[in-house]
């Protein structure tokens, strides 16, 4: 049997474009509304360490070129569309991107993004979501072991259905499927397939406060590389949400996850997992946010597992209705477990990855905003090969064709 996903990385995109066209041609019932917002985006930036290597030696060995830095330009053409009728909401996003490099011209490439989602509601008791997303993008060099251009194709299908029981209880269910084509240096057909089942029960009876229990089961597989195998993951957690008007929101989950995988040398990974999200509107112009999380994830370059502990904090200052400043700082601690793909450095590896960024956005005209940004990251690892420091500075402009 022929796998339809392997027939080409662009398979599925023509169907999405056709569906968007059909949506645009749909007759509008009296109670329906449709809006579309096309946009053009251009960005130019300087990257001090394109390949995220510790120094120029790996580049000299790979291609005889010691250059670390480069200028690149990225161009985006896209459209956001919304179709509303009755209690239903259909949204669509389509982007085509082009990225060019001045020195490393072998990295020049095209990307795309297509996303169609339906927020549906049958009655006041039953609602849900159906979403399909497909994206082609350049794989980040810091996640792999290659200095060559690799274009990942990521497809996701998500379905959710929620039922309000009486006035105090809500049952949430979800199914998702992900198919990721992520070519590696010696395994160009490497991919990952993953199914996720989610069930949660929430109590809504307390003022400003919602709490409950959630269970997730994940079944996945790595394909087209030696020694990789299937994996399953079970996660159980307690959830809580606290909301006071639009000023303060708090979301928390604390649980435990167990992941079993064959052919990795370490068959079981278990960890306390969870997430804590906090947002606060301090004044009419200033807001802050904090996000803490710990999860068991897949390490694609090794066909194995990793436990990630992440802290992100940010502040947004809207100085005037035209000028906004966004500050963010983050830190990721990654512990890698098991090793499947030969040559990958996984077992015993620990990474420390702090990041900082600042964005200055100016609404120049009604349809045009300009943003200057600065990002810095530095990773230190128990494997010296994965140490690097990188600084990116750039400017971006977007024109939106709003009615």
Form type: globular
CATH architecture: Beta Barrel
Radius of gyration: 23 Å
Coarse structural class: mainly beta
Mean pLDDT: 89
Instruction: Please provide the count of β strands.
Output: 18
CATH fold title: Porin
Largest sheet: 18 strands, antiparallel, barrel
How many structural domains in the coordinates?
1
Q: How large a portion of the residues is in β-strands, by DSSP E?
A: over 45%
Q: Total helix count? A: 2
> Given this structure, which CATH class is correct?
Mainly Beta
What proportion of the residues is helical, as a percent range? under 10%
| N-to-C CA distance | 48 Å
- H-E string: HEHEEEEEEEEEEEEEEEEE
Give a concise summary.
It is built from 2 helices and 18 strands. It has helices at 13-25, 57-63; strands at residues 33-47, 70-85, 88-101, 109-121, 126-138, 151-165, 169-181, 191-206, 209-223, 230-244, 248-261, 268-281, 286-299, 304-317, 323-337, 350-362, 368-381, 388-400. The protein starts with 12 loop residues before the first helix and ends with a strand.
Explain what this protein looks like in three dimensions.
The structure is a single chain. By secondary structure, this protein is mainly β. The chain has a single domain (45-76, 115-400), classed as Porin (Beta Barrel). The chain is 5% helix and 64% strand. The chain has an 18-stranded antiparallel barrel.
């Amino acid at each position: 049997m022929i796998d339809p996903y392997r027939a080409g990385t662009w398979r599925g995109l023509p169907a999405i474009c056709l569906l968007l066209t059909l949506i645009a041609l749909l007759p509008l019932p009296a109670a329906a509304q449709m809006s579309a917002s096309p946009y053009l985006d251009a960005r130019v930036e300087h990257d001090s360490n394109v390949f995220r290597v510790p120094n120029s030696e790996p580049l000299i060995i790979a291609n005889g070129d010691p250059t670390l830095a480069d200028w690149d330009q990225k161009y985006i053409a896209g459209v956001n569309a919304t179709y509303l009728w009755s209690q239903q909401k259909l949204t669509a996003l389509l982007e085509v991107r082009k990225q060019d490099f001045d020195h490393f011209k072998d990295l020049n490439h095209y990307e795309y993004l297509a996303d169609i989602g339906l927020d549906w509601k049958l009655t006041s008791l039953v609602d849900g979501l159906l979403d399909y997303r497909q994206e082609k993008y350049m794989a980040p060099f810091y996640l792999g072991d290659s200095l060559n251009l690799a274009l990942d194709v990521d497809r996701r299908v998500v379905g959710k259905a929620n039922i309000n029981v009486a006035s105090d209880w809500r049952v949430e269910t979800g199914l998702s499927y992900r198919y990721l084509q992520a070519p590696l240096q010696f395994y160009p057909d490497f991919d990952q397939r993953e199914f996720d089942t989610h069930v949660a029960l929430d109590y809504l009876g307390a003022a400003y406060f919602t709490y409950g229990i959630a269970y997730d089961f994940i079944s996945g597989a790595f394909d087209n590389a030696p020694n990789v195998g299937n994996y399953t993951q079970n996660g159980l957690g307690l959830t809580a949400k606290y909301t006071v008007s639009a000023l303060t929101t708090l979301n928390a989950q604390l649980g435990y996850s167990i992941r079993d995988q064959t052919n990795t040398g370490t068959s079981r990974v278990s960890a306390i997992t969870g997430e804590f999200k906090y947002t606060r509107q301090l004044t009419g112009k200033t807001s802050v946010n904090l996000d803490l999380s710990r999860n068991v994830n897949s390490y694609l370059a090794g066909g194995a597992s990793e436990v990630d502990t992440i802290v992100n904090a940010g502040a947004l200052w809207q100085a005037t209705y035209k000028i906004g400043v966004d500050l963010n700082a983050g830190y990721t601690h990654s512990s890698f477990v098991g090793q499947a793909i030969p040559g990958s450095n996984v077992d015993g590896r620990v990474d420390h990855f702090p990041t900082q960024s600042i964005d200055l956005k100016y609404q120049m005209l009604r349809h045009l905003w300009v943003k200057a940004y600065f990002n810095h990251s530095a990773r230190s690892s128990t494997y010296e090969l994965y140490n690097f420091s990188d600084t990116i500075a750039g400017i971006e402009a977007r024109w939106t064709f709003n009615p």
